[in-house]
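User
New here, explain this?
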Amino acid sequence: MDSTFQTSITRWGIIGCGKIAEKFADDLVADVPNAVLHAVASRDLERAKAFGAKYNTPHAFGSYEEMLKSGLIDVVYIATPHAQHHENTLLALEIGVPVLCEKAFAINTQMVKEMIAKSQEKKLFLMEAIWTRFHPAINQIEEIIKAGTIGEIKHIVADFGFLATYDENARLFNPALTGGSLYDIGIYPLFISKLLLGKPSEVKAVATLAPTGVDMNCSMSLAFPNGATASLFSTFAAKTDTTCTIYGTKGKIFIAGRFHETFGFTLELTDETPQFFETERKGWGYSYEAIDVQRCLAEGRIENDRLPLQFSLELMELLCEIRSQIGVKYPQEA
């Protein structure tokens, strides 16, 4: 490992001061070695100051551009609503700041292609913040699957749902803010199926739409070139178990809820006693992706080798195909 990664301080900035930014900041400050939250930005300066005060952050800005141009940060975490990711990412990369951008990466495939092109043009790091990718549980599950312990994967079942109070102006239901269960939480079941099975060869989706036109429920069936299938579901209408089961020819792996941030999983092989594996999850679970971003920066990478930009592009293609099938359109695409 590059010695720079071990010893130098990475100065982080955050754009957007909402709930997910707060969780990321909690973990950054508590569990990421050689990291400091050096600046935060919100379109509301007082909000930025209040957010920064929780973490003794020395700099707060009421302008994203001002923070990005300040020279005070080495990398920025973009935690604004989905609809702003494309604009915010391009701004940061154009100014010269590496980017970790929350999922969903953008609104559509064209936007993601533009983000990737700007990263390559500027030779600057860019990564989608799919934090689950870096969790110890997922790493261990991948190793078990690659070792052939459960045989060939034949089917994956995964869900994510919670009961949300309907409010047409709230982020979850507002089309202008890229609302809908698919982009907010359906991305997690899709992610785990893509991580383990690759790019699907066939996708079928149905949904129940909210009065605002975004999806309240979204049910997805996927088929893969190797013959495997997946049944995936997301909803704002009910609290679901939010688990994942991976069925193989020799057994199965059950990832306990909530599977995308789990503390453990069960390995159950045919005719054998189930084994439970307790796994580490520090804090909220966001530190692992931040640590890996710092590794990539130290190694001079412009994309993460464990979560490459092609993966994010294909994931967005999948999201857009599902949106097309269920009839969800966003005003930014008009």
Observations:
- Residues 48 and 106 are 23 Å apart (CA to CA).
- DSSP finds ten helices and 14 strands in the chain.
